[in-house]
Fold:
Amino acid sequence: MSETREKLEGTETSYGTCKYCGQVHHLETTGQCSEEQLNDWATGMCSCAGAKMEKKRHTSEEKAKDNIEKLFRENYPETADLLRQAVSPVVRSLIAGITIDTGHGIKGKVTLTGKGNVKVEQSVSKKTSLEA
Structure:
């Protein structure tokens, strides 16, 4: 019981403002937080449309980065790094997508689908030709 009390005594009440709707949220912190951090946390707690959209974007980014790791990290770490850097601009619609050619017949691609999902794609190009 005293351990819980000490934990509560070490916190202080702070307030953060949602970046989208301006709603103020009550936060318990250690007092070591910047205004920007408080506002980020308040935005994360908010249920307004803008905050919900940001949460969805963040979740999409994290899932896309995980998928990039699964598809590329082991064999093509440099490609994985480049694709991971492109995820945020794709999710925010700053770029339509990115395609990276590994030079080994493998291409990596990150795009935004019509439904707003992030598509991570690995394609293998195999060409066969015969001449007579």
User: Anything to note?
Assistant: The first helix runs from residue 2 to 9. The beta strands are 12-17, 24-29, 97-101, 106-112, 118-124. The mean pLDDT is 89.
